[in-house]
Design goal:
With 171 residues, the protein is mainly β. The protein contains one helix and ten strands, in the order αββββββββββ. Strand 4 and strand 5 form a beta hairpin.
Amino acid sequence: MKKLFVAIAFSLISLGLSAQDWAVGARLGATAQVVGQYDMGANYIEARFGAGFANNFMRDGFDGRFPYGASADFSVLYNFKLANWNWTPSAGEWFLDAGVGLNVGGGENYAYVGPQGMARFGIRFNGAPIALSFDWSPAISVSMVYGGGHTEAGYNGLALANFALTCVFYL
């Protein structure tokens, strides 16, 4: 798993070293994540890493041995800039984006993986290189709890409730 994270990180870095194409920030809600975005004109790639709070498919795990809590969470999304509106010319430009990607993560005795979508609505402020947005990033993933000679898999229904606020700073 660590090799996958390193490979993805180096891939994103190799896309370009121009600072004006990058944005960094944070995403808080069903997750607490750092966010990196690489702008490619009409589209952008987004990588997120942090702690997920809506990813465990079993509240108590099998026979209650595994606590419900945060998990390491990593997502890579390819996003499309769908629409822009100039509703508030003195404040900034409003936008609507959508994307698809992959979500992986887990904890000590469980893991999950699955495709992820994203719908984002927000504003990029005038006079400041900052954007604030609300997004929904549902994942259709499977989870597995393992350990102690027992393995159990299931659908990760909580991953559909991945709502958060994202704030990024354009470099």
